[in-house]
Amino acid sequence: MKSTLSILKAAKAASSHITAASPATLDTALTAAAIELERSAADILRANAEDLKAAEGKISPVMLDRLRLTKERIADMAEGIRGVVALPSPLGVALEKTVRPNGLTVEKRSVSMGVIGIIYESRPNVTSDAAALALKAGSACVLRGGKEAFRSSMAIVDAFRRGIKMAGLPVSAINLVEDTSRDSAVEMMKADGYIDLLIPRGGAGLIRSVIENATVPCIRTGTGICHIYVDKSADLDMALDIIENAKTSRPSVCNAEEVLLCHKDIAAEFLPRLYDRLVTEREVAGKTPVEFRTDERAFAIIGGTKAGKNDFDTEFLDYILAVGIVDSTKDAVLHILRHSTGHSEAILTASERDANYFTRTVDSAAVYVNASTRFTDGGEFGFGCEMGISTQKLHARGPMGLPELTTYKYIITGNGQIR
Question: Residue 192: helix, strand or coil by DSSP?
Fold first, then answer.
């Protein structure tokens, strides 16, 4: 097993080659990586089957779904890489340019980070997405995935490396940490001089650990206590469709809905319909029903499980929905400001005034009007794949695409000026 330090050193050495590579070379390498990923589908699926077998009984069925790969998901990963190739290079872009009174030209130009570290949990598709974005942004990457997905991630990295080698790039531009203990994560958090940007993708515990322990620059991502507020003027049929999608299409991801707020004037009509859609109809169809954790007013209408003190502050990542009744749009916003993690929130309304108030006052990275929170995603926003969802405000916010993975420097050109 390679030590984490040796992997960090290899990535640092490779980063200068990646920084010097032309955008065309990087795109050629990514295209080859996508082809190798598809060619290696059988090997990747065998590795994934071993991961799934080892994880059975140790993680929930929903988390097993996050771990599971299929031919279709591998094909989607390859298409995600090709989508990144199709995007314009974020490197060498003149962000600002001024000419000073003394004749100096000052240009602010986008450049690569150098080495990007990513710590994530049991989602092997992140391995492909992160590697593709880092390479397109001109950086080497050090990936540290969860132990449950190690075999899958290693098979993906092996395929990726075969692709970039064909383009003449060093294989150590893409690295997977082999030590899956907590020690390797801490080592990355403190890898000053080796990692230029560290991004955690995962649950609240992982993100908190990185924020508290990292001495390298890092970005807070991920935790999504996403709210949907159904206003009194909402189209209720549309609301049912949106909420079903936001809660049940893939409950294990960070952009899934965790909290429903309903205006008091429509609660008696809407909540029983919602119960029928998410519980009764799903049971009849043989699907997993949604468990409602209801506040006192919602409990009086549809029952469920009475919400505990933490239920409106929990990212369930499961078929569980906290449900509350509010008196107004203002009260919905106040509730969200108290309980949100700053990820994604939505208002369902026919009122332009309420929509404007909601979008102006809700302080989250993505705020929706009459649409599912499940769209908070780099691909859906047109960024190709994504490195994660930043819930902070400095440097990057929301889905992190290519521009957020670069930094900048100033290029000053003169003709003999002295100060």
Answer: coil
> Residues of 213-251 as b/e, b for ≥16 C-beta within 10 angstroms?
ebebebbbbbbbbbbbbbbbbbeeeebbebbbbbbbeeb
Distance of CA 167 to the CA centre of its chain: 28
- Top-confidence residue, 153 or 400: 153
Alpha-carbon gap, residue 67 to 51, rounded angstroms: 8
Among residues of the chain, what percentage have pLDDT more than 90?
80
3-state secondary structure of 175: strand
By CB atoms closer than 10 A (0-12, 13-18, 19+), residue 86 is exposed
pLDDT, tens digit (0-9, with 9 covering 90-100), for 315-372: 998 999 999 999 999 999 999 999 998 999 999 999 999 999 999 999 998 999 999 9
Strand order in the sheet with 174-176: 174-176, 140-144, 115-120, 197-201
pLDDT confidence tier of residue 127, bands split at 50, 70 and 90: very high
- C-alpha span between 207 and 245 (Å, rounded): 26
Residue 217 · residue 231 · CB < 8 Å? no
Q: Kindly state the helix (H) or strand (E) to which residue 367 belongs, with its residue range.
A: strand 366-369
Contact 214, 198 (CB under 8 A): yes
pLDDT above 90 (res 34) = yes
Between CA 239 and CA 245 the distance in angstroms is: 10
> What would the DSSP string read from start to end of 156-171?
HHHHHHHHHHHTT--G
- H/E segment holding residue 155: helix 150-166
Residues 214/189, Cβ–Cβ less than 8 Å: yes
Nearest 5°: the CA angle 315, 290, 245 is 80
